[in-house]
Design brief:
By secondary structure, the protein is mainly α. It is 54% helix and 3% strand. The chain has one domain. A two-stranded antiparallel sheet has the order 1-2.
Length: 157
């Protein structure tokens, strides 16, 4: 069960999360662990990949306080994913601890799924920033191609 007030990272993804940050002399594309987790969660949602955490990282990155996400303006992502996954608007209630636990768990699982995708995409990469930019560029171009396709079905009556 999710620890209330904190977002956890799976132990097997901890090194990847650290490598993706630019703190402590590292050259990753993200400034904070929270930035990495939000990106990974949105990637997980995009690819419909939600994975249970398993063993939790106790050290760096230790569970991240939700207040950190709030201060960065990322709390809406946690709430939106909670509502989408549960199909229940009550999950965003700030007064019920069980709802906070539920939405944090949903967010953690999507982040873990996104981190799995990143592990596969970044395998063998020297420069994670370049590889992530290529991934984003591919996604953008792929979306444009789908939108530009001429759809004859709108002429059928």
């Amino acid at each position: 069960m999710a620890e209330t007030g904190r977002i956890r990272v799976a132990k097997d993804k901890a090194e990847l999360v650290k490598a993706l940050t630019s703190a402590e002399g590292r050259t990753g594309p993200f400034q904070t662990f929270a930035d990495v987790i939000v990106f990974a969660a949105t990637l997980g949602v995009k690819h419909k990949k939600r994975v249970a955490l398993g063993e939790i990282s106790k050290r760096e990155p230790a569970p991240i306080r939700v207040e950190h996400f709030v201060s960065m303006g990322h709390d809406w992502v946690i709430k939106l994913l909670g509502v989408t996954a549960t199909q229940d608007i009550k999950v965003i209630s700030p007064f019920e601890q069980e709802f906070e636990t539920q939405r944090n768990s949903v967010f953690e699982e999507y982040a873990n799924g996104g981190l799995e995708i990143l592990q596969n995409e970044l395998r063998g990469a020297v420069d994670y920033t370049e590889r992530i930019l290529l991934l984003l560029s591919y996604e953008r171009n792929n979306k444009k191609e789908q939108q530009e396709e001429f759809d004859l079905s709108k002429f059928l009556s």
